[in-house]
Design goal:
Helix content: 25-40%
Number of strands: 14
CATH superfamily of the domain at 40-164 and 248-342: Aldolase class I
Radius of gyration: 19 Å
Order of helices and strands: EEEEEHEHEHEHEHEHEHEEEHHH
Oligomer: single chain
CATH topology of the domain at 40-164 and 248-342: TIM Barrel
Structural class: alpha/beta
Distance between the termini: 37 Å
Largest sheet: 10 strands, mixed
Shape: globular
Amino acid sequence: MVKTSGIIINQYPNQSYETIFNQKTGFFVRSDGETGKDPFWCSYGPELMDISITNMCDKGCSHCYKESVKAGNHLSVEDYEIILRQAADMKVLQIALGGGNPNQHPEFCEILRLTREDYNIIPSYTTNGRWLDDKILFATKKYCGAVAVSAYTPYTDLSLAVTKLLDHGIRTNIHFLLTSESVDTAISWLENPPALIKKINAIIFLNYKPIGRNPNQELLVRNAQRYSTFFQLAGKSYPFKVGFDSCSISGIARFMKTSPIFLERCEAGRFSMYVSEDNKMYPCSFMINKIEGIPVTDNNIQEAWRSHDTFVQFRITLQEPVCLDCAVHGICSGGCPVFPEVNICSYPLSRQLA
């Protein structure tokens, strides 16, 4: 690892590539070195870890994929630090804290401090917009790279939270759940951005998956009448950045004129992994009700990442040839293997994860 003024360069000579990460701005690039070919995965460990530190949330949203509740369980600080020690050894650059509503964890500020001060990993988190008191806002400003606020109707919590975060000088994003019902709202926000939206860093659109408290196939984006219009609008320039989760790659590849160099298909098990609040590992957070998680111990995360059958088989699935006659296959690579029904295309659902 090379570190200069907040810029971290991780070199992986065995795979002939390196990563460059600016801790201050969030700028990240993966350089393919002499091979001219992007690596399929990082054998050393994930670049990003998605960690649920609590399943507590007071909103009770009907679409919650985690089925979070007011009396949700917390990941202990002791268990979190076991993860942190191993993350630092694997050169993890960022940890995305989630839940539940992570800032409702009773030791949330200490978790932020540990991550940044003791282990030099940049934390970020996604909040439902509630429970952002002065102590949490101070710790967020001091330690975090960015905060995302979930956007759900009637958007009251969103507006209050974004205003509060921006007033404290915190880099603020919005996470917008894209469903067949919300596509029209997304289009209206892009056509005529509300004043508050113009001030944020980015809006990130998340592709709905039918899992959790109330799975509903009718909410799939592919059921919306104007999804192609949405993706075309998303490719334009705005006062804020526009981003997507990798689960949206099929729509991006089909409808957006974006250079493939800026796109990334599913990174689960390749460059990112998930740890649940009950301290179990998965390639992806949306797999928690589909497979058995791997319990975290004092020294097994890198071993599981490299050789546990769960991660190995998932990477094999991601490499299986599908949709080879599609014009954008080289970008999309078949889309999501966990929920192929979320893919916005007409190809058969041929790569369902077993």
